[in-house]
Automatic annotation (TrEMBL):
Protein name per Swiss-Prot or TrEMBL: Zinc metallopeptidase
Spans traversing the lipid bilayer: 12-30, 127-148, 154-174, 201-225
Assigned keywords, A-Z: Membrane, Transmembrane, Transmembrane helix
InterPro entries: Zn_peptidase_2
Organism domain of life: Bacteria
One Pfam short name: Zn_peptidase_2
UniProt keyword annotation of Nucleus present: no
Length: 234
């Protein structure tokens, strides 16, 4: 049935909730990072220097620390064993920058130790990318053009793979932040007070992953509701 649930779809409310959560979380992390990026660490160490120190302490001297353009584009690449720090982190001596750098080091340590959730997330990457690109379009096409319920279900299962990826990401990110905070204070990179500031920065960053997972779950719920309505009409 052409146009079903597309223009006057009350389940869009779920999408709106997800979007609001994502916008709020993004604003929260940007504001928190901006606040503590103005607080310089007592050691005067930069994000890159802190990362190098943490990696060396954990027997990861072969992991390279590189500069990458952008703001908060920091990441650890397990394929090349390279830790990349953004403009706002690499040469900055703020507690926020050091906290972000330490968080990425946490991922490198996870990789070294074979942290299971990280392995699962890595295995899900290609499936999740496929699901995020094609899952939703398949469901929408099925609903708009009145295709079979089975066709719609296939789209939902494909999209569910990307949702699972978002859920598995949560323990990976929380664990990396926990490791970062312990290492920062344990290696005397930051004082107890400065570590507290980092906890706020990393806590705000974690909210973005929670919001992304919640948004994906709400979208999946919407698709299930729409497909349920279609099944009842078949």
């Amino acid at each position: 049935m052409l146009g079903y649930g597309y223009y006057f779809d009350p389940t869009y409310f779920l999408v709106i909730i997800g979007a609001v959560l994502s916008i709020w979380a993004s604003a929260r992390v940007n504001n928190t990072f901006s606040k503590y990026s103005r607080v310089r660490s007592m050691t005067g160490m930069t994000g890159a220097e802190a990362a190098r120190m943490i990696l060396n302490y954990n027997g990861l001297g072969d992991v390279q620390v590189e500069h990458v353009s952008g703001s908060l584009t920091d990441h650890y690449d397990p394929r090349t064993r390279v830790l990349r720090l953004s403009d706002s982190t690499y040469a900055s001596g703020s507690v926020a920058a050091i906290g972000v750098a330490a968080h990425e080091c946490g991922h490198a340590v996870q990789h070294k130790e074979g942290y299971v959730p990280l392995k699962i997330r890595g295995a899900l990457v290609p499936v999740a990318n496929f699901g995020s690109m094609l899952g939703l379009p398949i469901v929408v096409l099925g609903l708009v053009f009145g295709l079979s319920y089975t066709f719609i279900q296939i789209g939902i299962w494909i999209f569910a793979a990307s949702v699972l990826f978002q859920i598995v990401t949560l323990p990976v990110e929380f664990n990396a932040s926990g490791r970062a905070l312990k290492m920062l204070q344990g290696y005397n990179i930051l004082t107890e007070e400065e570590t507290g500031y980092c906890r706020k920065v990393l806590g705000a960053a974690a909210l973005t992953y929670v919001a992304a997972a919640a948004s994906s779950i709400l979208q999946l719920l919407r698709l299930l509701l729409l497909s349920g309505g279609r099944r009842d009409r078949d």
